[in-house]
Amino acid sequence: MESVVVAPAAAAQGAVAVAEQQQQKKKLLDQKMELPLVAALKAPAPASPCKWAMKKKLVGGDAGYVLEDVPHLTDYMPELPTYPNPLQDNPAYSVVKQYFVNTDDTVTQKIVVHKTSARGTHFRRAGPRQRVYFQSDEVNAAIVTCGGLCPGLNTVIRELVCGLCDMYGVTSVVGIEGGYKGFYSRNTVPLTPKSVNDIHKRGGTILGTSRGGHDTAKIVDSLQDRGINQVYIIGGDGTQQGASVIYEEVRRRGLKCSVVGVPKTIDNDIAVIDKSFGFDTAVEEAQRAINAAHVEAESAENGIGVVKLMGRNSGFIAMYATLASRDVDCCLIPESPFYLEGKGGLLEFIEKRLKDSGHMVIVVAEGAGQDLIAQSMNFVDTQDASGNKLLLDVGLWLSQKIKDHFKKKTNFPITLKYIDPTYMIRAVRSNASDNVYCTLLAHSALHGAMAGYTGFTVAPVNGRHAYIPFYRITEKQNKVVITDRMWARVLCSTNQPCFLSHEDVENMKHDDDEQHHLHNTQLLDGSPAKCSPKCNGFAAPL
Questions:
Q1: How far apart are the first and last CA of the chain?
Q2: Is the dihedral of CA 164, 166, 168, 170 positive or negative?
Q3: Is 434 among the annotated ligand-binding positions?
Q4: Residues with Cβ within 8 Å of residue 66, at least 6 apart in sequence
Q5: Residue 439 banded pLDDT, cuts 50, 70, 90
Q6: Are 494 and 332 in contact (CB under 8 A)?
Q7: What are the start and end residues of each CATH 3.40.50.450 domain in the chain?
Q8: 33 marked ligand binding residue
């Protein structure tokens, strides 16, 4: 990935003098980073013939200020005309004190600093711009949902359609059915404010979804043939990685088409952003299963309730559901290893808790303990169509291990109930909080597309919505930091052992410090960063 000096958006929108003044104050941060996706494109695969290397836009300023900017259509189509933003004539916005976002507004990634700290990394602030690069009648927008289900998908679809139509006067919006493969294997579905009016009251996605099916050349051919010039791609980190490849091919062909990502993952494992939509709903719904498990356990002699929640690589749902419930006695997540047998092990803790309280509730994330299960079953790793590792059922395995342990104990009968609400949680409609959040995400996304930005995903960073380059949310996953205070709060709530030695904890602290130092070094000296090895149907090598 090549880094370049970039003028602020003001230059792209006509304020040349302001842009030149800003550019004089800013310095080039030399950084060579070859995007793993580009290497993947060169591999013999039907995904795409694209060999164009994405340019990373870094702008430096005083006191260690770094703007990780997003691409703009004028980067490769400099002669594009601009138009007044229709919002200035929208009656609904007549009471707004400031219609448009200042062109130089940025959002800082880190808000807790010391007096000697550098200003650090910033992202471009999301919101409507005074000038736009699309006229209302020329916009032909497409929306696609990929990957697994998540509460709020229909709300995002609804708000994208209604926002484009009501705020910008767009009349041509279509849906792509069945995920990425729908671009080249199915007809589009026309979407209007009337047709999507009440879809936010339903779970799932009206467009359907799938894993895999990413064929870059066919997808971009479809965009080109259908005259689509704005595409909104809703999905997780693998889907966003695929969107990045689509953007690269669109740019290589010189098409006027904004490629915009809306990050989606019920596990809340997307890096950089505050949280993903659907997460609040998932935590709220998880309470129902935990409450049921607690009632069952409390009502039986030596009752044990085991609840498995979603969390493939990150245990955020389990952690927050545990804290919200206060009825959980043990929370197991992928980030915190545990062991069963021996002194200080899980089985010893269960036995002690039953003797003390007469019942207990265990919450386990689906990705926890996978190494233990694989060892006991001699299991060989396999993957799904998105490149995700197929997980074994830790809930069933753990339940059986607990039963086997207590069978050996005389005069210690137990009653164990196992509850798996996984697909019930992700299939529900979004709650009020997530509905509002989805609305803000959709509006921020379409404002960015109309302003000519492309190759970005939109999400809140420290409470402010921002436009984030694709590579920043696909280079690693967000995980629970078990050396952080939030996990300590869980341990205080459950009074469970951490199952880690002092040496293990110190090593994890050291790893966290190294990761933080590595990112800062990459910004300064251009060291390559490793990217997530999965894409939705498109494998990107490390």
A1: 14
A2: positive
A3: no
A4: 29, 58, 59, 60, 119, 120, 121, 122, 523
A5: very high
A6: no
A7: 58-276+432-474
A8: no
Q: How many residues does the chain have?
A: 542
Quote the pLDDT of residue 509: 60
Determine whether the annotation assigns residue 236 to a binding site.
yes
Q: Mean per-residue pLDDT for 451-464?
A: 96
**What CATH fold (topology level) applies to the domain 58-276+432-474?**
Rossmann fold (3.40.50)
Kindly tell me if the per-residue pLDDT of 355 is higher than 90.
Answer: yes
| Class of 279-380+389-428 in CATH | alpha beta
**Closest alpha carbon to 285 in 183, 395, 425, 389:** 425
Binding site annotation covers 184? no
Question: Which is more confidently placed, 163 or 506?
Answer: 163
Q: DSSP string covering 171-214, please? A: --EEEETTSTTHHHHS--EE--TTTTTTGGGSSS-TT---S---
Rounded to whole angstroms, how far apart are CA atoms 40 and 214? 13
Query: d(Cα 254, Cα 110) in Å, to the nearest integer?
Result: 35
HSE of 337 in the Cβ direction (CA atoms, 13 Å)? Answer: 9
Catalytic residue list: 267
Handedness of CA 304, 305, 311, 314 (dihedral sign): negative
What's the confidence (pLDDT) of residue 304? Answer: 97
Contacts of 465 (CB under 8 A, 6+ apart): 107, 125, 126, 127, 440, 441, 444, 458, 459
CA distances 64 to 1, 13, 108, Å, are 22, 27, 12
Cβ-contact 254, 283 below 8 angstroms: no
Q: Is the pTM of this model over 0.90?
A: no
Please give the pLDDT value at position 19.
Answer: 42
The contacts of residue 275 (CB under 8 Å, 6+ apart) are 268, 460
What pairs with residue 124 in β-bridges? 106, 467
Confidence of residue 512 (pLDDT cuts 50, 70, 90): low
Question: Where, residue-wise, is CATH 3.40.50.460 in the chain?
Answer: 279-380+389-428
Q: What residue type is assigned to position 113 of the chain? A: V
